[in-house]
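Known limitations

Structure tokens in this collection are predictions and should be treated as such. Users comparing against experimental data should check residue numbering before alignment. To illustrate the layout, the record for Inosose dehydratase is reproduced below. The input appears on top and the generated tokens appear beneath it.
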Amino acid sequence: MANALDRIRVGSAPDSWGVWFPDDPQQVPWERFLDEVSEAGYSWIELGPYGYLPTDPAKLTDEVNRRDLKVSAGTVFTALHRGPDVWDATWEHVSQVAELTRAMGAKHLVVIPSFWRDDKTAELIEPSELTVRQWSYLTKGMERLGHEVKERFGLDIVVHPHADTHIDTEEHVERFLDSTDSGLVSLCLDTGHYAYCGGDNVKLIETYGERIGYLHLKQVDPEILADVVKNEVPFGPAVQRGVMCEPPTGVPALEPVLDAAQRLGVDLFAIVEQDMYPCPPDKPLPIAVRTRQFLRSCGA
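Generated tokens:
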């Protein structure tokens, strides 16, 4: 029997149902996502792209309560490395999502940096490496965001390293953590994205434990990843090739990651996210059921 992971609270997200956008004909309706995530045995969910789930707190509260679900976090996208000029537009987006997140009783806001290449066309939007000035904008901007979000909404921001963004590799993630105030900025460690970018998840948890504020559980298919890296395939097409795969068939092994997280001695959300946009509507539920059973076998 696996060790009981009593500090880990497992959930899932619209992403595991192939949902990347607020509204898209290739995605399942939100009612079906809520029905199926509950049926699969999860009790926690994220809001996903703002506008996919109902944005009226009373309606959403009613819908999640009826299915015995609770919300762990909202998600925002930011481009703070572009400097003070983007602050107002960023804050408008953030406060909208933070308002709903707080109303749902959640305590976390997952912050995803902007992509440097288009995830559909692969067109370069900007260089993949930031200048010294842009790094300063990014780190100071995230600290300001952490401060404002805590002050105004009582939420903690958790910054999500992500493929094809400027916070991706071990080097970039460590530089980001070393350059930001631990009181203002924590990390949402996505096990799949970090492995996708060549990082060692267990090492990061053991080295920067006090900065890990949230987990996304995900695995990559090493064979597909090798081809993706070799041919510089952008993230969107890589997902369509199946680079993010069903656990426990990929890397990193989740048992050691969960054990390392449990050893931190703090309560952590671990939200399953298997990127598979777009996908057939009947594909997600069986995967979600098997993944929940697998995580139970790990003690979570």
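For this record: Residues 232 and 238 are 10 Å apart (CA to CA). The first helix runs from residue 30 to 39. Please report discrepancies through the issue tracker.
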